[in-house]
């Protein structure tokens, strides 16, 4: 049987980056191998070096990166191989798909052309033969209307479709090994299940090995034969998927396995006063006509109604493009909207900037991107106290510094850090800073827009604990927007499910999660919590 | 797309109208007049001149009269170059300025792109530093220094090329002015291309192209250069308009009969109609080139076509 033949073998690989702060060792001596036809997962949190191993083996390291050690493909050493010889292997025998479906394809060329290029370069196909093969490949990855899609540009496709195009490109030359670097991380859970199902189907059909890099253990469990667990540039544990999931031997692996957010929030009593009441809120975007296209209207949010009681956390879930973030912003009057929004008895919809200002301190927001939402030119102390300058102008500089100190302590950061700049902090720490910025104003309502989505599970868990603590300490009410169902289940006592700008289902969190009524919600729940089952059902359906 | 072009051109009419109006009144606000001399003209002569050129009428009437003439395509007579209408002056000078500017633009694009690409591909090597240093030099040294230097070295000392003059547009007479005009543009284009090329080479889709084993030449030319051209294209709109409508310094130093001189001479002499004529020409060029840039941009970048 061919299964035991090792096709990809990595021995004591090390990757070092020259940075202005000195050398950084991203990978510190890793051994791993992939046998023909098997699926191997490499798991680890961000910064564990899991992607850099593959970049090193494929000659794709950034200019300041250096690889040592050995990576062989069927006996052929790849490290240090001259580029023209490496080019005969990559794209032909070993192919890759990447995390970012939005940027991994060239925006300036049609997808037909991009799939054809490797076919013409490696397979020596003529342009028309390559095009015919590209069409077959698009059919293979189940892209609707493949004929028309050949002429489409990447920006005309959804994220999931782009990832299908990447897969088509990867399969073009019948590779031996497909390296998939977090291929579903940027996608919605339901799309993720489809893409994983597609990969599994194609693997059965074509027999290539898959090396799957991910931070998500649910994917590993549903998808992989063997697992390498990585931390700080080393493999800390390896074994078959069953072994790792049933008998993990290392603390780190156990921590990863237990990283799913835990706990539930009890509902607030019916008697709790309503703080924020939104009635039939709609948001419409006007798109201006382009060079070759007429303008159009996009109804991002359609008549969504929500009431938030004191001490309550309302979770809003939905896939990307469902309008959940837009709705969150419209609630705080950060976007023009139709409908009524009432805060503690006062209508605030349609208020101008100045009229809205007194309410702003009570209605705070925390954004998803911990990198983009903190000014890089202000110290953390300045960022946290900037709101006080507006809302409590009578405070002296000393009192503001005191407030910053307290807020930093509150979110679990060392107050001595307040004179540092955001870039000196990790993603999780930055999100704590963003929370401190909101909390320092002593608001009553905080809208949290995907605050944990850019973070590793273990960091996520800490942020969730922090949110719980400050909610109790300050009697806060949250609107928690997320596509991550596990986090919403842990934090929210009431859940709203949105799709295409509308509410498809709402109710007490337990109710929505345990007994979803709509098919849409059921699909979401299954893809998020029962990936393995979804994949095996997909496989059966095809068989 | 034709509809778009027509819309844009129609949209340019108010812009041009504003430009004409603003420059008309600004010119008139400036002290002095077209017939002021060190030794004042006789009162009767001045009165006659003013009457001939309608300068004795109220300002609003002059303005309406100018607009009326403009609508018929008449830019009026020049106040200083007697016997010439502004049209005649522009018709003789503009082709010369355009020829110089067009050649300079071509030279700037070819050399700028090549140098910028080489620098980007050899980032942080001595080649890169060399290109950046030369580019910085090219931008900082003003053309009124470069022009006489070139004229002196190649025209006088080495006597390889004419030191100045138009010479009926013979190629030898074009070399030095074109180089002078092109040098700073080469520098700017090279820097723009270098920057955007470095960014393009680091982008995810270039990584994809590498991961798929495409040859380096194909990656650079097909996948990186096209994206790297975009900022240059947007820069070229205003730059082309400025180059093609002539340069006062270069035309004066090399003694070329382009229209760049008319603008400054006209302004200094309060030759109202001549200044208005050149302003309108420049404004039209800016409008047209911005339109060309937008069309070119849409051609290069499919995302723009739908946004």
UniProtKB/TrEMBL annotation, chain A:
**Record GO terms (molecular function):** ATP binding
Q: Does the keyword Nucleotide-binding apply?
A: yes
Q: Which InterPro entries match?
A: AAA+_ATPase, ABC_Ni/Peptide_Import, ABC_transporter-like_ATP-bd, ABC_transporter-like_CS, Oligopep_ABC_C, P-loop_NTPase
Could you tell me which SMART domains the record lists for this protein?
Answer: AAA
Just give the chief location class. Answer: membrane
Family the entry assigns: Belongs to the ABC transporter superfamily.
- What name does this protein carry? ABC transporter ATP-binding protein
TrEMBL record, chain B:
Q: Which residues form the ABC transmembrane type-1 domain?
A: 94-297
TM helices/strands, residue ranges? 9-27, 100-121, 133-160, 172-193, 214-233, 239-260, 272-300
Principal subcellular localisation of the protein: membrane
Print the keywords alphabetically.
Cell membrane, Membrane, Transmembrane, Transmembrane helix, Transport
The record's section on InterPro entries has: BPD_transp_1_N, MetI-like, MetI-like_sf
Enumerate the subcellular locations listed in this protein's record, separating them with semicolons: Cell membrane
**Organism domain of life:** Bacteria
Q: Which Pfam families match?
A: BPD_transp_1, BPD_transp_1_N
Q: How does it sit in the membrane?
A: Multi-pass membrane protein
- CDD domains given in the database record: TM_PBP2
What family does this belong to? Belongs to the binding-protein-dependent transport system permease family.
Protein name (Swiss-Prot/TrEMBL): Oligopeptide ABC transporter permease OppB
Query: Which species does the entry assign this protein to?
Result: Chelativorans intermedius
């Amino acid at each position: 049987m061919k299964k035991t033949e090792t096709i990809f073998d990595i021995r004591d690989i090390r990757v070092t980056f020259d940075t202005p702060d000195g050398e950084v060792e991203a990978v510190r001596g890793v051994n791993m191998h992939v046998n023909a036809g098997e699926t191997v997962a490499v798991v680890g949190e961000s910064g564990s070096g899991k992607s850099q191993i593959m970049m090193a083996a494929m000659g794709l390291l950034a200019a300041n990166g250096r690889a040592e050690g050995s990576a062989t493909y069927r006996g052929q050493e790849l490290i240090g191989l001259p580029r023209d010889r490496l080019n005969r292997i990559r794209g032909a025998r070993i192919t890759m798909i990447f995390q970012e479906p939005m940027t991994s394809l060239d925006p300036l060329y049609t997808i037909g052309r991009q799939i054809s290029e490797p076919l013409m370069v490696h397979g020596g196909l003529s342009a028309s033969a390559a095009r015919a093969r590209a069409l077959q490949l698009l059919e293979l990855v189940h892209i609707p209307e493949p004929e028309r899609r050949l002429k489409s540009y990447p920006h005309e496709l959804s994220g999931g479709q782009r990832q299908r195009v990447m897969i088509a490109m990867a399969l073009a030359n019948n590779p031996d090994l497909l390296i998939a670097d977090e291929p579903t991380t940027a996608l919605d859970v339901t799309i993720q299940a489809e893409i994983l199902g597609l990969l599994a189907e194609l693997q059965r059909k074509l027999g290539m090995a898959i090396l799957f890099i991910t931070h998500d253990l649910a994917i590993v469990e549903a998808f992989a034969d063997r697992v390498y667990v990585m931390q700080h540039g080393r493999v800390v544990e390896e074994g078959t998927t069953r072994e790792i999931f049933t008998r993990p031997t290392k603390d780190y692996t156990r921590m990863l396995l237990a990283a799913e957010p835990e706990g539930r929030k009890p509902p607030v009593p019916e008697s709790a006063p309503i703080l924020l009441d939104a009635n039939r809120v709609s948001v419409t975007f006007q798109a201006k006509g382009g060079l070759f296209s007429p303008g159009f209207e996009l109804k991002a949010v359609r008549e969504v109604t929500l009431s938030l009681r004191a001490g309550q956390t309302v979770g809003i879930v939905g896939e990307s493009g469902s309008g959940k973030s837009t709705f969150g912003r419209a609630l705080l009057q950060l976007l023009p909207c139709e409908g009524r929004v009432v805060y503690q008895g006062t209508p605030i919809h349609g208020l101008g900037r100045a009229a809205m200002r007194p309410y702003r301190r009570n209605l705070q927001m925390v954004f998803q991107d911990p990198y983009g939402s903190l000014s890089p030119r202000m110290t953390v102390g300045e960022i946290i106290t900037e709101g006080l300058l507006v809302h409590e102008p009578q405070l002296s500089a000393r009192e503001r510094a005191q407030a910053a100190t307290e807020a930093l302590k509150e979110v679990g950061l060392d107050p001595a850090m307040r004179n540092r700049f955001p870039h000196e902090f990790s993603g999780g720490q930055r999100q704590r800073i963003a929370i401190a910025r909101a909390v320092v104003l002593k608001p009553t309502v905080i809208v949290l827009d995907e605050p944990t989505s850019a973070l590793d599970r273990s960091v996520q868990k800490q942020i969730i604990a922090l949110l719980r603590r400050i909610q109790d300490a300050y009697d806060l009410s949250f609107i928690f927007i997320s596509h991550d169902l596990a986090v919403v289940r842990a934090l929210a006592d009431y859940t709203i499910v949105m799709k295409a700008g509308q509410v498809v289902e709402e109710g007490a969190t337990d109710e929505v999660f345990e007994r979803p009524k709509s098919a849409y919600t059921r699909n979401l729940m299954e893809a998020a919590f029962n990936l393995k089952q979804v994949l095996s059902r997909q496989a059966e359906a095809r068989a | 797309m034709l509809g778009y072009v027509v819309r844009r051109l129609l949209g340019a009419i108010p812009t041009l109208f504003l430009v004409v109006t603003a420059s008309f009144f600004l010119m008139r606000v400036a002290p002095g007049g077209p017939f002021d001399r060190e030794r004042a003209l006789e009162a009767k002569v001045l009165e006659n001149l003013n009457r001939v050129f309608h300068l004795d009428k109220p300002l609003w009437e002059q303005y309406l009269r100018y607009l009326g003439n403009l609508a018929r395509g008449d830019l009026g007579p020049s106040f200083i170059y007697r016997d010439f209408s502004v049209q005649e002056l522009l018709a003789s000078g503009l082709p010369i300025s355009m020829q110089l500017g067009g050649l300079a633009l071509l030279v700037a694009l070819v050399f700028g792109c090549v140098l910028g690409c080489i620098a980007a591909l050899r980032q942080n090597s001595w080649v890169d530093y060399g290109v950046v240093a030369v580019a910085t030099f090219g931008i900082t040294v003003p053309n009124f220094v470069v022009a006489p230097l070139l004229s002196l070295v190649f025209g006088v000392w080495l006597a390889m090329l004419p030191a100045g003059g138009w010479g009926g547009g013979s190629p030898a007479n074009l070399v030095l002015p074109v180089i002078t005009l092109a040098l700073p543009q080469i520098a700017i284009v090279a820097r723009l291309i270098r920057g955007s090329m470095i960014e393009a080479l680091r982008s995810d889709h270039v990584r994809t192209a590498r991961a798929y084993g495409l040859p380096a030449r194909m990656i650079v030319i097909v996948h990186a250069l096209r994206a790297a051209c975009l900022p240059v294209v947007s820069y070229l709109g205003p730059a082309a308009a400025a180059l093609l409508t002539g340069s006062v310094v270069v035309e004066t130093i090399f003694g070329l009969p382009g229209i760049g001189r008319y603008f400054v001479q006209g302004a200094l002499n309060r030759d109202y109609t001549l200044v208005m004529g050149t302003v309108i020409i420049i404004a039209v060029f800016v409008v047209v080139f911005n339109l060309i840039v937008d069309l070119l941009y849409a051609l290069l970048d499919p995302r723009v076509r739908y946004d």
